[in-house]
Amino acid sequence: MDGSQVLTSFGALGVLLVIFAESGLLVVGFFLPGDTLLFPAGLLCAGGRPGPHLSLWQVLVCGAVGSIAGAQFGFLIGRRGGAALLARSDNRHLEKAVARVEEMLSRYGYGKAIALGRFVPMLRTVLSPAAGALGVPVRTFTIWQTVGALAWSQSLVLAGYALGTSVPHIDHYLLPLVAFIVVVSLLPLLVEIRRARRQRQQGQGEDQEHEGERGRSGSTRDDRAPQRRD
User: Fold this and answer.
1) Which of 49, 57, 126, 177 stands 20 to 30 A from 159 (CA)?
2) Whether 24 contacts 73, CB under 8 Å
3) Helices 35-45 & 12-22, crossing angle to 10 degrees?
4) Cα(first)–Cα(last) distance of the chain, in Å?
5) H helices of the chain, where?
């Protein structure tokens, strides 16, 4: 789905529906715009430009409600039937995403992982159902997903609105700006992948070093062992 078409056809209501689905529905969430919808929605709230004009407070409310309610709905689905669904699933991409969520929860703790995960495309779609399936406490998830949802949705809308009101003809550069936002959103994921790869390489190096030390110590003991004489 194209974000501009959604905003032109449905306005702020389109923001609510799309963000709701993108925040917790595994079936369709991966194919829906998130970052690429909120930022242009904020841009359309700024006056003095052709095309549809949206109300800033309506977009902010719809973005907040859609992101919070969608994540909570996905969490409840995952909590009630997610474990069985994941056990029967043979989708490799889904399995990798769930494993990624589980790794983040164990490494950073529930609060940090849930809040920051909302800023990573694709990960935020599987984050809520996976958290429910992995047994994250309801209260903890609700608090931190609300914090992350508000920070994510409101910051993107307000960024679009600020640029729309301060930079003339900013809509001419909408596509490069959206591409920039997508790249920035992927940076935490890329940094984390690089860090995990580096840690894995260090672990392999330490294992090889330990094996080498054990080999040297074994050969030393063999050399020092008394030789049997016939």
Assistant:
1) 126
2) yes
3) 160
4) 86
5) 3-10, 12-22, 26-29, 35-45, 56-77, 83-88, 92-108, 110-117, 123-133, 138-166, 174-224
